[in-house]
Write a structure and sequence with these properties.
about 140 residues, Heat Shock Protein 90, six-stranded antiparallel sheet, 6 strands, globular
Length: about 140
C-alpha cells in the first residue's frame, strides 16, 4: 500500500506556458535526485513530467503539475498528477494508442508516458478536463 509523505515534500506548479513546464520538470528532477533515483529513472520521470505539462499547455491552456513523494515500505517514489479543466479527451482508448493524434503530432506522448511509469491512471470528461496520475518508484 502506498503512503504519502508530508505535504512539505509536495511540488506544485501552475502550468500555462512552456517555461512553466521547464521549471516544474527541473524541480521534479531535483526531487528525484534527492530520493536516490538513478539517472535512468530520474530522466524517465522528467520526460513524463515534460510530456504531461506540454499536453496541458497544448490542449487545455493551463493546469497543474503536482509531484508528491510516496512510499511503499522502504521504497520511495514520486507521484505526478497533471490536472486541467480543458476540453477533455473524448476517446481515451484511442489517445493511449501509439500514433493516434488529434493535433497532427507523432501521437507517442500518452502511450510513452504509460510505458515509462510504474503506475498510470487517466480520467477525463469532455468539457470538464483531464487528470493523469502516475507513479515512478526509485527502484
Amino acid at each position: 500500500m502506498e503512503t504519502r509523505e508530508p505535504a512539505e515534500s509536495e511540488i506544485r506548479h501552475h502550468v500555462r506556458v512552456e517555461s512553466d513546464v521547464t521549471v516544474a520538470v527541473l524541480a521534479i528532477g531535483r526531487l528525484a535526485a534527492s530520493l536516490g533515483f538513478d539517472t535512468s529513472r530520474k530522466t524517465m520521470l522528467m520526460t513524463v513530467a515534460s510530456e504531461l505539462g506540454t499536453n496541458i499547455c497544448k490542449y487545455a491552456g493551463s493546469g497543474w503539475l503536482i509531484a508528491t513523494v510516496v512510499s511503499r515500505g522502504a521504497v520511495r517514489g514520486i507521484e505526478i498528477v497533471a490536472e486541467d479543466n480543458g476540453p477533455g479527451i473524448a476517446d481515451i482508448s484511442s489517445a493511449l494508442r501509439d500514433h493516434f493524434s488529434s493535433s497532427g503530432t507523432l501521437g507517442l506522448g500518452l502511450p510513452g508516458v504509460r510505458r515509462m511509469v510504474d503506475s498510470f491512471d487517466i480520467r477525463s470528461a469532455v468539457g470538464q478536463g483531464t487528470t493523469v496520475r502516475v507513479v515512478k518508484w526509485s527502484r
